[in-house]
Amino acid sequence: MTCGVSFVTVFVVYWYCSSVLALLLLFFSLSGLVYQLGDWLLYHPEQPPHSRLYVPSPSLVGLPCWEAPPVHTRDGLRLHALFVRQPPDRFGQAPTLLYLHGNAGNIGHRLHNVAGLFHQCGCNVLLVEYRGYGRSEGTPSEEGLYKDAQAGLDFLAQHPGLDATKLLVFGRSLGGAVALDLASRPEHACRLLGIVVENTFCSVPEVGRLLFGWLRWLPDFCFKSQFRSIDKVPRVRVPVLFLSGLSDALVPPSMTQRLYQNCGSPMKRLATFESGTHNETWLCKGYYPTLSLFINDLVARQKEQKDAPEWPSDQTCIHIPADII
C-alpha cells in the first residue's frame, strides 16, 4: 500500500511539474514570437506599396531650393535625406527643422506638410529617412532610429552657412518619440532651440495594448521596441510645443496631453485641434500660425539672451475649433 501511494504521489508531482513547465515554455515561446512580431507591427516602410522604391521630389510640390545629401550615422549607415532650403538671402538666418516622420511611408510623402513649414513658417527643413525606409540602408529598430535622428542633427550642426543656434526638431507620431529621446539627452539637447511633438504616444506597450487587445496580457519586456516617451519627457528641458488632434483614432489625444503634463521644460505649450486626425492635423486651421508663433518666440528670446537663454515659465494651452483650411 505504501509503495502504491508513493507511486501516485510521484505521478501527480511529475504531472503537475510537467504541466507547469509546458505552460512556461508556451508562454516564453509566445513571448518570443510577439517580441519579434512587435517590430513587424510597428514599422511599415512598405506602406503604401513601392515606398522603398519611389520617393517623391520636393519639386512636385513647388519647392524650388532643395538638395538630397547623404547623411551618415555614427554606426556606419548611409541615410537618404531631402534638405529643403530657403532662398540664399534667407537661408543663413532662417530657423531649421529636423523633420522626423511616422512609422509608415517615406520622407517624400510628407512634402505637402513641409511646403507649409517652408512657406508659412519660413524654415529650412531637413527630412532624414529612417534606416530601412525609402532609400536608406539598414533595418529599423528603436536604437537605430535614435541614431538616425542624431545623424540628422550632426549634419545640420556641421552644415556651412547654416545658423546652428536655430535648430529645432519636429516629430509626428513615432517621430515624436524619437524627438523626445533626442531632447532628453543633454549632449543633444544643448544643440536644440526647441522641439515640436505631434500626436505622439506615451510608449509602444501602452498604445499597442489599446490597438491590439490580446497584447494586454503580455508584460512590457515582451515588446522589443518600447519608445518610452512618458519616462523620458520629465528630463526634457528645452522648449516644447505639443500638437494634438482631438479626432485622432489611432493614438488617443490623452497620451499627448499626458506627455505635456509630465514634460520637465519650463516652456511647454499644448495646442489641440478639434478636427485633427492622426496624420492630417497639419490641415487644420491655425496649425501653421501656432507653429510659427512658437518658433518666432524662441528666436526672439534667444536674440535677447544670446549666451544661454533662460526660458520663461510658459504653459500655454490653446484649442482650435473644428475648421479645415
Automatic annotation (TrEMBL):
The chain crosses the membrane at residues 12-35. Keywords: Membrane, Transmembrane, Transmembrane helix. SUPFAM superfamilies: alpha/beta-Hydrolases. The keyword Ribonucleoprotein does not apply. Residues 97-222, 231-279 form the Serine aminopeptidase S33 domain. This is Putative lysophospholipase candidatus thiodiazotropha endolucinida. It comes from Ixodes scapularis (Black-legged tick).
